[in-house]
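Our preliminary data section would be incomplete without showing what the modeling component actually yields. Below, a chain of 311 amino acids is followed by its predicted structure, encoded as tokens that our downstream tools consume directly.
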Amino acid sequence: MADRARYAAGDILDSIDGKPLRGPADLRRALMEMGDVALLGDVTVTVDRRAMLDGVEYGELQRDVRLRTLVRGASPLGVLYLQGIGLGSVEDPSPITDALYALPDITLMELERRGVGDSEGELPDFLTEVDDYRAALAELRRRCERVVLFGHSVGGMVAPLLGAVDGIIVYGTSALRWRDCLEQSTRRQLALHRITDVEPVLARERERIERGEDERSPQFHAQLDAVDLAAAWRESRCPRLVLHGEHDWIVSLDEARAIDPAAIELAELDHAMTAHDSLRSSVAALGRGRRVKIPEIAAFLERVRRASSAV
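Predicted structure:
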């Protein structure tokens, strides 16, 4: 739609249908409320909700609301992508999805969470999000002989809750209780910025979440915190690949190794899977480092594929 309205990269869209865009929440709400035509800034365009990306099969997962699915490829080996906590669309370019798109001979399924993009409903709490992913997994199983989960960050916390699969790959995730994970992450970030008065900051962060000022609801945080992730990982018996970036200052290597002592630390990578020459660079430019190939992911998928053909 932006192309048809003759917007280009670098232009600023400040309103949709006369409603000001002050941040991602305003944009998300405006996109959900659009009718058959929309006013982008001062340009009227027809709203087209059909497939816009080449090589992508756009579908629907019918729950109590309709959820958009995106499927690429037609291989017997399926990969279900479990997003992190951020509320960006799965259609938004990211280093994580770019790495998945580059993997050869897989069927990649992405699920657009409720209240984002063309998926209906309100933003989900944690348990609803897990159930939606469970339904997406069932759909991918109908398409593919073998299925692997790829979870990034909080998506990696979802992975061991979905039941038995043929493999799990997680990147930048933790086995700590959620509130402990948040606290350790905040302490780590404050130390990087040489802030020593930590307790008042932690108290403000807790209050902000409890008041519902975070993008995700207090219920989401409470439900996730109630999950014993360490126990969930102990009970999960499927093959796993646990990856952690050397310059990931959001989650620690110890947290990754609590999931699997054989967790692999990838040189130079940050939490968003881009490479930096230093930790300081990753702090200043999270997700804006160099894109690199991660052969460990392709090698793990090939092992799952060979195990399938050996059965």
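The first strand starts at residue 15 and ends at 16. Residues 63 and 132 are 8 Å apart (CA to CA). Preliminary results of this kind motivate Aim 1 of the renewal.
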